[in-house]
Amino acid sequence: MKGKVWLWLVLVAVVVIGAAGIFIWTGQKGEPAAEEAQGPSFNPDLFVYLGPGDAETLDPSKAYDTASAEIIFQYYDNLIAYKEGSLDEFVPMLATEVPSVENGLLAADGMTYTFPIRKGVKFHNGAELTPEDVEYSFERNILADPAGGPMWMLIEPLFGVSTIEDLACQIAGVDSFDQVDEAALVETGKRVMAAIEVDGDNVVFHLNQPYPPFLSILAHNSSWSAILNKEWMIANGAWDGRAETWVQWHNLPTEEQVLFDKAMGTGPYKQVEWDRSNSRHTMEAHADYWRGPAAIKTVIVNNGVTEFNTRKLMLQRGEVDAIYVPVENSPQLEGMEGVTVLRNLPLLSNVCAIFNQEINAVDNEFVGSGQLDGNGIPPDFFSDINIRKAFCYAFDYEAFISEVVLGEASVPYGVIPKGLSDYFDPNGPRYHYDPEKAAEYFKKAFDGEVWEKGFKVTLVWNIPNTTRKTACEILEHGIEALNPKFQVEVQGMEWATMLPRRREGRLPMVFIGWLADFADPHNFVYPYLHSKGDFMAFTGELGRNFAAAEFDELVNAGINETDPAKRVAIYTALQKKSIELAPHLMLYDACDRRAHRDWVKGFVFDPIRPAQYDFYALSKSLD
Amino acid sequence: MAIMAILRRLVKNRVSLLGLILLAFFAVVALAAPWLAPPEAGHDPYRIPRRGWALEPTPPSAEYPLGLTQGQYDIYYGLVWGTRTAFRVGIIVITCRALIGIVLGAIAAYYGGLWDEVLMRFTDIFMSFPYLIGVVVFVAIFGPGLNNVMIPLIALGWMPYARMMRGNILAVKQEEYVLAARALGVSDFKIITRHILPNAVFPVLIQASMQIGSIVVSVSALSFLGLGAPEGYADWGQMLNFARNWMLGEQGNALKYWYTVVYPGLAMVLFVLAWNLIGDAFRDIMDPRLQA
Amino acid sequence: MLAYIVRRLLFLPVVLFGITALLFALISTLGPWTRVATFIPSPDAERHVDLEAIIRKYHLDDPPLKMYLRWVKNLFRGNLGWSQSSHMTVSEAIARRFPATLELTLFAVGPVIIGGIFLGVIAAVRHNKPLDHITRILAIILWSMPDFVLGLAVLMVGFGVLGWFPPGRLSAWAQLAVLKESFVAYTGMHTIDALLNRRFDLFWDALRHLVAPVFTLACLWWAFMLRVTRSSMLEVLNQDYVQTARAKGLTERMVIQKHVLRNALIPVTTVASNMLLGLLGGVVIVETVFNYPGLGLLTATAATRLDVPCVVGVALFYAVILVVVNLVVDVLYSLIDPRVRLE
What we know:
By secondary structure, chain B is mainly α. In chain B, 70% of the residues lie in helices and 1% in strands. In chain B, α10 (188-210) runs antiparallel to α13. By secondary structure, chain C is mainly alpha-helical. Chain C has two domains: 1-85 and 307-343, no CATH class; 99-304, MetI-like (MetI-like fold), CATH 1.10.3720.10. In chain C, 73% of the residues lie in helices and 1% in strands. Chain C is built from 15 helices and two strands. Chain C has helices spanning 2-28, 32-35, 51-57, 64-76, 90-125, 130-144, 147-161, 172-179, 190-196, 200-237, 240-247, 252-280, 284-289, 295-304, 308-336; strands spanning 82-83, 88-89. Chains in contact: A-B, A-C, B-C. At the A-C interface, α1, α9, α15 and β15 of A face α2, α3, α5, α7 and α8 of C.
């Protein structure tokens, strides 16, 4: 028996291998194309980039993360683009002119924008761009408006509400979208279709109110304003363009949208494949691109290489052209031969710690006893401005910036980051580490009770963001050094565990960052300071009332003002007030960095572009 | 065989003597941790002190003899207190695993029949449970931290011991001398202490004790995934994980940060080595056929 | 034996039910507000999101039993659900990742088992001699290295210094070649597909990418195989019939080849099958370090993001593999060792 088994196994193996061999030798011979067999040596036609994490979707109406926007950026064009090196001047793209009051394409009241559409532009499938495509693109994205998507940015200026469901409720006069009747739905569709219209060779936008950042919201870098191909969309099962049917395509699950994993634009690159199991995007230069075909023929964006060491070695060996480098890893690229590392590129992004002015103290493990008895903090601890200022003075900004983010950051001037310094006074007041002042404010807080009794609080950071952990520890260090009765504890938490606690308002301080959607201070002051903004949502009822009393009026004034000079004055005032009243502890204004082989030419940094690289602008050469 | 006799044999064998010495060394370090590396007053002693905030490790100096790893965590301090962690995690996990295994295995083998069938299928289900998923889901439920990582390590690790225990008892039950003892009317208590304990339970315990070292390695793999001890907790696996970004050094100077990986790595290797050497020797001693 | 096989296969649904019910029970303790975190990739990405709407839409607040029944109902329709963390259906995710894992397993099994047994035999034959001690200590050192330390070291030497064994599954040019329409992906395993397409340049490229992960896995497992082989060999070497064979005057080499090895290898098969299962379940750290996305990475990402459908789907898939592989091993075992009877 024993011997037989082995015999059989060997026999089977021989037969299998033999059959496979015969199949291989007699089968069709796959010819390696000449240009393929080049191996890993220098190839000017191929660009490989290793990114940090994969896109969530390629649908412009849903994509709201940088990894998605980065890919959409390569496949689609917008009506206009930012002028190189500027954050408030624009150049034409698929429109032939940028609307302005001077050229008559922007109405004097600031509420009607007209875009003449370029002729002869080809989509990736060869179809020609028409004004109807442009109209359809915006209408489709606005009506799709999936939950958690970016479409509020267009819905707000065009209709004065933040979601399409709100608009439908407003039209129907009801409170909940479930109650909206058929007629009101059709009416909603018509309203949207009326707001964006084709007029001959032009497309006209009718705004609900003057909205100064509107052009930034349309510019190339804004994935939500990408121009789609109407005919192709409908043929592939997307919204058919009628007011009666839009609800069928509204707020679909991400994966059910036609554009979830496909792309059909006029951009410089066309999609070859999104290999989702390897997190890899392959794209090919669009031969009929209206600005002329890209210099680099093929681009591979591989977002699946999560281990930095692996990315680093691949760059070092020249197997890839560029990699994503997290701030903590940038020193490891120093002195690497053949590699260019650009650091300290100012981003429109900042990181803060939000003071929760009304902590939900029921069964709360983060506030100790929940009282001002030396073993906890009361729920309204942070509603005392002295406490907030004391915390702001107790953080060692310089040590954090030089040692933790390795100099790639700057001390904030308030809620508006340094990149938008045209809108505030760059010589204005800032916080700095000052233990004496911190002690002074702690002594004033709660009529001296805090200083006398001490307190105990837990700061929570989200795993695996150890940069924030160190920020917590620096704050802990700064505060505990002031008074032996002050106890700060630092605790890490997984995002899934943190979410319900953050939502219920249990976290005494929320560590969080904001990256600009579009280059305008409104995009910072609204989330940070407005009582309905995303960040004020973490401050409790007291915090929101405080924001409504102190900031709402100014924030609204800023967005409704069309005169640029007056806007600067408003934002300068807001910026100063955000320092004086210390609604949040602003930790740092962030910077970005790039690492690519020396042979990559033509890179220009653009603070608002979501993509690390604009592959169209690049070329590769060895000299 | 008397415990003393076993010990004597362990000491006589050079290899197991090395293991014993290593283990004794680690035990002394663990016990003397408060004196070897005095913690800062008012702080949890298991929290490694930071001597600064910078990411880049600092080489060994007179003040910090083993250097400072990423984030300026003191390597010496972390290793000393990490010894306690290593012992604690290893011993708790293994004891619990062995206990569950022995109890369930004994029940299955003793009662047999339906009990046996149900318990063994129960064991099968746990065996088919993917380890990684188990650990991550447990951590998601109970929150991260060393104590919470131990729960899934126990829950998903007792099965081999249960099977082994069951097999051992079934084998012992069949042995002629046990059958003979039963026939002679020897009391159950005597059968258990004379035959079942040494021939069924001890082998399981020995097998289990050999695994104590490797638990430390399993936990360190979890810290790679961010599931182990909280950052800054004295744990060797985490110390090694701090070295992850630095162990490849710089281009042209691959060994620049050698101390970040060598010291924690050495502690871990020696600890595992100690348990294994003793375990091997133990097994050789307990196996009468190998005494020729 | 047929009865045994049937009985074991009939038990499969019980295992599957046990595992999935256990997972659902565990996950249901989390509550909807924790589970909704899957839909928001990071704490900073929660912008303009109506979390309540997401909970309602995906029925995250249903009682656990209802969730489980719905899942079972969908399972019978062949629908394992949508994986939020990998952006595709769970079945597609598994179908795409499994070939990578299988390919790695196929290439790793040989070196690991043969190498491990070889080392174990050497150690046992030289019992308590220097060579025995050296191999054992070396093996323990390798074994006590966390996988990522060893993996990174192998990556550094094999790729960073020598440049021979790059990470990933294919080079960039090969990735493009595979995408061409003329290339047919039969199995998803690049080495085999390359052979079937008669593209030896691609085969060579895929093979080159497999060396480093296989070597790392081999180092990690050799220690284990060595220990088992060694102790099993030692046990057999002291059996009476071996002594008899020696007494008959057979050379030591003959004794080992004829009498010892085959008997000693029986317990090794159990270990080998465990190792096979470990490989098939995915090796997350090796996959991460060598950028070789297989089942391990899929599982780890899904689990850390609490992607419930994917976690349960992978667990289900793994359980099936486990039961089947164990069954095959048991049957082989009974064929090799006549003393073992399947009951």
